[in-house]
């Protein structure tokens, strides 16, 4: 059993938050009954879920590894219309995928993109205690004072 908003998101229609809006708007039905209250759990193997009259099917899980180049924003949408990583993977999958984690615009590196919400949650949520390793190259020598700031828990932005 999973929450209805998650099922809708897994079908590639929209995010879970947007799915909540669709549910409260009364455009989602389960087994022929319109649902407009949040929190309902459905059985993906038994229940028939419809959105605007169309039966939804869960997407297969997709995983895309992207070597993110410099000058791309790690987001699914940018109101300032800058280039996003989504532009690089728009033909990689028919399913709606999204990045796990973030890399700064000027940062290059491996970025995992998926529609697997469980994996995304496990990899990104602090409760999972997943260790992340970063390889950093600097354009100048690191001053001892900056190194001390990093070693004692101050962020790099503070240490600059």
Characterize the structure shown:
The protein has 160 residues and is α+β, with helices and mostly antiparallel strands. Helices cover 26% and strands 18% of the residues. α1 (4-10) packs across α2.
Number of domains: 2
What are the segments in which pLDDT stays under 50 over at least 5 consecutive residues?
Answer: none
What is the ordering of alpha helices and beta strands? EHHEEEEEEHEEHHH
Report strand order across the widest sheet: 3-2-5-6
Number of strands: 9
Give me the CATH fold name of the largest domain: Alpha-Beta Plaits
| Overall shape | elongated
Quick take:
This protein has 160 residues and is an alpha+beta fold. It has six helices and nine strands. The protein is elongated, with a radius of gyration of 20 Å.
Set down the secondary structure blueprint.
Elements: E1 2-3, H1 4-10, H2 16-24, E2 28-30, E3 33-35, E4 41-42, E5 49-51, E6 54-55, E7 63-68, H3 85-89, E8 98-99, E9 109-114, H4 117-124, H5 144-151, H6 156-159
Antiparallel strand pairs: 1-4, 2-3, 2-5, 5-6, 7-9, 8-9
Question: Which key phrases capture this entry?
Answer:
single chain; 160 residues; alpha+beta; Structural Genomics Hypothetical 15.5 Kd Protein In mrcA-pckA Intergenic Region, Chain A; 2 domains; four-stranded antiparallel sheet; three-stranded antiparallel sheet; 9 strands; 18% strand
